[in-house]
Amino acid sequence: MQFFKQISVVTLFATVATSAAWGQKGSFDLRLSLNSLDCKAGKAQVSIQVKATNDAQTFQMGDANYRFEYNSAQLRNPVIVRQENFSNQAVQVDRNYGQQTLQGSREVGNQGIVSLNAFYTGSNAGAKAVPNVWIPVSTLGFDMVNFQTPIELKWHDNRTFPISGMNQVKINNSDPAAFEYELLEVPQAGQFLNLLINPAASCLSKAPAVAVTAVKTKINQSIESYFPIYDFDEGDIHTAKLLSVSNGTATPSVIGKQLKLYYVPGKDFIGKDMAVVEVSDKFGNKETVTINITVSSDALLVHNGISPNDDGLNDNFIVEGLERFPKHTVAVYDTYGREVLKTNNYKNDWKGTFENKLLPDGTYYYVIENGENDSYTGYLQIQR
User: What pLDDT does residue 24 have?
Assistant: First the structure.
């Protein structure tokens, strides 16, 4: 028989004063420990551990509930990665316990609460003792979505409701044929050791570098320009923010490994403009770049992004206004400096080929001379 099982689950979160009246010993400490931090994948693994407060307060583990909270704008989606003790799913299988669960865990707004549950099944008299040494209970995995500020995981202790709590197994009859036990609340709680994760210190990273060139457009003519982002941190993620623009309007964004700037000059404006853009990575590193823009009445307009997939949209490298400059030359180079296009009679018909073969997607460099001592240079992105 398994006496008081239902009652004990209810009293698991009762006040210390109630269970202390029963007079049983037992006091536990809890801690959270960082097992691993995978900066590339954005994954963190945290160990939940328990021990008796001292040698005089050891007890036989029954049911337990471990609760702590975190900022769900920094960590998300807790899962059980590994059950290590007090579980029939642990590496050292213990049939006295059931499978651990996260039932009762939740994320509401920016508050996340983990509720890890362990269950004593009472299959025999072999409840596991909790000694005065740290025992890992379970390893939890999280998605880490903010690398820029420290992340705190904070226990729900004996001053918080609902609290972390557990009970101990009191054996009334150890005869396997007539095994009887009670689950009584562990009357005291000792230390609750929280965890502070500092991704900035653990995830060493470098700021992105953005290669920008001057942009030219015609009066009242908007333009999209692309600039390559170089980053040595594999799998990094980037965002762009406009800090200022002098005369027109500018909208920056990140497309793949490119900074895209959509620029609209002010009505009838002719002259020099300047857009200042901040590019950030997921670790909080920032690079600020200044893009100089010339707006004139007779400028060539270079479309520096093409997607030659024959869908009728942006298939060719387009340079508007070349017909006004019969002595022009157009050249394109790959990242090794190899000339992949050179012509002095460009018809806006190049689809990203060299020697009748498709060039790979990537960043190229163009040089356009209008034949009147004016040159245009910049980056050309091929993306099919």
Answer: 59
